[in-house]
């Protein structure tokens, strides 16, 4: 049984107050912070890179930065993100020809390695070998590139397929996840929950974090007895 981890996506935060926004989430019960790094190549938008992560890490030294690398050359940024204090480096499998070597490089810098799949990528792109070597698998439930999009329920069966092959692995969902869509994600077996607008725009972020967490932990307890 894996435990719930809530990773608010800072893309929906006030970037001018980024460190304070991260602190607010941690106080509200978030275990991780989801840092969406976009390079204008893998996706059209540009968000932030290592210099900004360095500042956040300086302000909150024990923060767990879950770095979602929506970048065209994920090999290129491993050292910078590690130096910035990244705890988990999640790359897109669509962006690399050698995921196994990339995971080795990420581990060599003492970060956890995550492997993400976009909505049109099948779950079997994550082979048994890749899945076993990675620390986390990310099933995107929107097309990467921006926050506030509609949840794509058709991606959820990929979570269930990965959960059946990797019962003890952290499996993350990202995109359009919130109180209205958490049930199907939790029932399919995801335990790391990214939510941007659903948490940052809520009148009470703490309540939403708790609801997401409880839903995952309840679903995990049920899956464990099956
Ligand atoms: C999309 C990003 C997501 C996004 C989630 O490219 O990877 O992390 O910020 O935001 P919401 O929860 O608003 O869909
Ligand atoms: Zn993301």
List keywords for this structure.
226 residues, alpha/beta, 8-stranded parallel beta sheet, 9 helices, 18% strand, globular, binds D-xylitol-5-phosphate, binds zinc ion
Q: Could you characterize what this model shows?
A:
The protein is of the alpha/beta class. Helices cover 38% and strands 18% of the residues. The chain has 9 helices and 8 strands. An 8-stranded parallel β-sheet has the order 1-8-7-6-5-4-3-2. α7 links the parallel β7 and β8. α7 runs parallel beside α9. D-xylitol-5-phosphate (DX5) binds next to β2, β8 and α8. The site of zinc ion has 6 residues, from β2.
Provide a short characterization of the protein structure.
The protein has 226 residues and is of the alpha/beta class.
Biggest sheet: strands side by side, in what order?
A: 1-8-7-6-5-4-3-2
Order of helices and strands: EHEHEHEHEHEHEHEHH
Mean pLDDT: 98
* First-to-last CA distance: 11 Å
Q: Tally of extended strands?
A: 8
Low-confidence stretches: none
Count of DSSP-assigned helices: 9
Shape: globular
Structural class: alpha/beta
Helix content: 25-40%
In percent terms, what proportion of residues is strand?
A: 15-25%
- Radius of gyration (Å): 16 Å
Largest beta-sheet characterization: 8 strands, parallel
**Structure ligands:** D-xylitol-5-phosphate, zinc ion
């Amino acid at each position: 049984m894996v435990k719930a981890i809530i990773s608010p996506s800072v893309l929906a935060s006030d970037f001018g107050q980024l460190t304070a926004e991260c602190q607010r989430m941690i106080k509200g019960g978030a275990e991780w912070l989801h840092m969406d790094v976009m390079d204008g190549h893998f996706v059209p938008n540009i968000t932030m890179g290592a210099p900004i992560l360095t500042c956040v890490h300086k302000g909150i030294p024990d923060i767990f930065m879950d770095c979602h690398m929506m970048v065209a050359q994920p090999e290129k940024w491993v050292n910078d993100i590690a130096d910035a204090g990244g705890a988990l480096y999640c790359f897109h499998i669509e962006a690399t020809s050698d995921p196994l070597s990339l995971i080795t490089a990420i581990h060599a810098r003492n970060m956890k390695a995550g492997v993400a799949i976009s909505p049109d990528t099948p779950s079997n792109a994550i082979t048994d070998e890749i899945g076993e070597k990675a620390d986390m698998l990310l099933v995107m439930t929107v097309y990467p590139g921006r926050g506030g999009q509609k949840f794509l329920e058709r991606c959820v069966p990929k979570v269930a397929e990965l959960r059946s092959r990797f019962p003890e692995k952290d499996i993350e969902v990202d995109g359009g996840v919130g109180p209205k869509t958490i049930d199907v994600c939790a029932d399919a077996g995801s335990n790391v929950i990214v939510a941007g607008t659903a948490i940052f725009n809520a009148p009470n972020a703490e309540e939403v974090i708790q609801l997401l967490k409880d839903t995952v932990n309840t679903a995990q307890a049920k899956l464990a007895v099956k």
